[in-house]
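Sample 3 of the quickstart, ligand flavin-adenine dinucleotide:
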Amino acid sequence: MKTIVAKEEIAPQTYRYVIRHPKLARKRQAGQFVILRMHEGGERVPLTIVDSDPEAGTVTLIFQAVGHSTQELAELGVGDKLLDLAGPLGKPTHIENYGTVCVIGGGYGTAPVLPIATVFKQAGNRMFGIIGARTRDLVILEKELGEICDDLRVATDDGSYGVKGFVTDVLAQLLAEGNKIDFVLAVGPTPMMRAVSVLTKEEGIPCMVSLNPLMIDGTGMCGGCRVEVDGQTKFACVDGPEFDGHLVNYHLLMKRQGAYKHEENMALSVGSHCKIGLDD
Amino acid sequence: MPEAPTRASRQSMPEQAPADRITNFNEVPLGYSTGQALTEASRCLQCKKMPCVAGCPVAVDIPGFIALVKAGDFAAAARKIKETNCLPAVCGRVCPQESQCEALCVLGKKGESVAIGRLERFVADFEREGNLAEKPTVSVPTGRRVAIVGSGPAGLTAAADLARLGHEAHIFEALHEMGGVLVYGIPEFRLPKRILKSEVEALQDLGVTLHTSTVIGKLDTIEDLMTEEGFDAVFVGTGAGLPTFMGIPGENLLGVYSANEFLTRSNLMRAYDFGRTDTPIAHGQRAMVVGGGNVAMDSARTARRLGAQKIILSYRRSREEMPARAEETHHAEEEGIEFHLLTAPVEFRGDENSRLRAALLQKMELGAPDDSGRRRPVPIEGSEYEEPIDVVVIAVGAGANPLISSTTPGLEVNRKGYIVTDEETGATRGDRRHQPPRRLRWRRHSHRLRHGNRGHGRRPEGGGGNGQVSEGGVTSPPGPR
Ligand SMILES: Cc1cc2nc3c(=O)[nH]c(=O)nc-3n(C[C@H](O)[C@H](O)[C@H](O)COP(=O)(O)OP(=O)(O)OC[C@H]3O[C@@H](n4cnc5c(N)ncnc54)[C@H](O)[C@@H]3O)c2cc1C
Ligand SMILES: Cc1cc2nc3c(=O)[nH]c(=O)nc-3n(C[C@H](O)[C@H](O)[C@H](O)COP(=O)(O)OP(=O)(O)OC[C@H]3O[C@@H](n4cnc5c(N)ncnc54)[C@H](O)[C@@H]3O)c2cc1C
Ligand code: SF4
Ligand code: SF4
Ligand code: FES
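Result:
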């Protein structure tokens, strides 16, 4: 239980772990996440369940080593055991046949998009996909998403691969080409989700986003993960993590995500790895 | 020479001096010496009618254990308590004794009641520190299996009682450590974690199986427990862990915490030891805590130890109505917490970075009594004043977490989300699909458990979240109805 059975660096500082937890593998649904801890005194780290294999009794996590805890996680290897692994947490994705769905993943956010895209496809939707990354090396899961999406496009900030620009540029392009998109689901850095929400709102397309505020317990007990949606306070770990993108207060979310910047840098300066910034 | 008193006076407890203790998270009261314990025990009159026992939620044989203390057999005294209370070191520290057992002690009427809680703590510590605990006896296995959801005092107590009766008890806890509020809420300086840990370990000696990081309603639902996992009954002791916010402007600013988050960061995640541990917490210079219960006192005293220079406690009623234990209020005052009584925040104000910078407080006066029998605070128009603060902890109560009720079809809950149960048996109501074919003989114990846990669950600090067991099927806490 909770043993890492496979590890792969799928992009610089981005890892895929397959972890043994038979019951979790059977019970999890798309859109749900886990909270793990590596050692006594360690943080509780939330990560989306990207895939599971009920037969093998394993779940797959994909994460980017961005700070102290995720770098520590990256140092583990096959055979190592996590101290704790709680889940599946959060509400599963609401699945429907909308007609045509476009899934958008930015950075590590591409990982959470994969299981969601799978179930949307199964529900009979025609699928568009957009992957956004800063540069070619950081594009992940292109093959996997390519198998699900009828049309998958890539955007890189520096133009080293796919379209030069942001995921919103590609979405605008898709629409300009005359494609009718009935539903958008976006996961990634908060500014990206905000930009997608702004565009889809203008275009009158419903848009769900998966929010990732700081969390502790993940059970609705602390309120630390609270976000504002339609002027109401919601706890992302139990009411979400998916919310109507058009109603999210992104400004507040970004501020709250940065609440411990100072402390995180302190923790990081002890470690030796370089840091890949996610937002900003 | 003055005449010697016929009876010793109540022995006071030595404790860390305020100036020292605010610089550490070590326990504040230091415990009785053997001499003090003997003296205190000698004050007990060994009343035939044992009025004190009626005040104890788990019916500890108080005169019985005190007699053993008097006789100097502290280990036997500890065993006596453990016949009905699996958490003596915990209860001796955090039970509101002054309103439970000690409130009914006959000596209290004439002056000073016997310090029952302190004696309980003394013998439990004596047993633990001397490694004197004996392997407990359990009944012949019944072959019945019970799942206990939640490892707070309710769940731990239920598990111990069930195990003793010969049932196979499994506790399922959502967090990574056992203890509920005892581990995530109550600070180290009031209840050292190693003490809780040792009482939890004793449960394993009874044969209880512990499952941490297991969120029921998510990994397994209650129904799954009874079907897939083959449990004969489920006891729901999930507490009242849903934080309440006030619904005022600025509540989501950086630096505004629910008490649950603030205390969880500090206690469960040990943020006070940041550097050696990884979870951060805001160290304010000027902190404010809203509320007047134990949770508020714990938060204020934690903020003090995290280094805040000024700490305000805003409470909307007067001192008399404060629900916190007198001892805790006293400790807080000694540690320099400033009480702003008859005030309530109406707004939190932030800077351009959404960081909290001030609270707008409004003054209150007391009007006619409300449902709770306490006089209702009435805002005084135009009395608002601004207090500069950079951290606020909201400790105004908690509600029922809907994780279980929302994933258990047919479970009846009341308006506030608390599970509705049969007064007598503690059995849940509504759809009886979850009733197992065979019934467990619970009745006798459910009563005790229900009341037992009520004792630990004084509202509004998070009470109502207490559990009990019923005859088969799903059982749960008596929430406020
Ligand atoms: C529901 C949920 C699902 C998630 N799924 C994934 C996933 O599948 N893969 C993955 O790589 N990450 C995921 N995350 C984010 C991941 O939990 C954080 O990256 C991680 O906790 C950072 O910890 P750290 O100590 O390494 O970094 P820190 O030192 O804590 O932070 C480093 C940097 O990352 C930012 N950061 C911290 N926490 C978060 C967060 N929760 N979201 C976004 N940025 C954050 C900080 O602001 C800082 O800039 C998820 C988060 C949530 C809440
Ligand atoms: C800071 C603080 C100080 C207090 N001080 C005192 C005091 O001095 N004296 C006193 O008498 N009382 C005090 N109280 C109140 C007392 O702690 C509570 O009344 C008592 O803990 C309630 O016990 P419980 O077992 O019902 O619930 P809890 O202690 O709340 O435990 C419930 C447990 O269930 C777990 N859980 C919840 N949902 C699930 C799920 N779906 N699956 C699995 N597990 C789940 C939770 O994680 C938690 O561990 C205090 C409370 C707080 C918050
Ligand atoms: S009320 Fe608490 S302190 Fe008093 S005897 Fe009972 S368990 Fe012990
Ligand atoms: S009521 Fe007081 S004096 Fe009498 S037996 Fe109980 S503790 Fe002793
Ligand atoms: S993480 Fe604590 S309530 Fe969501």
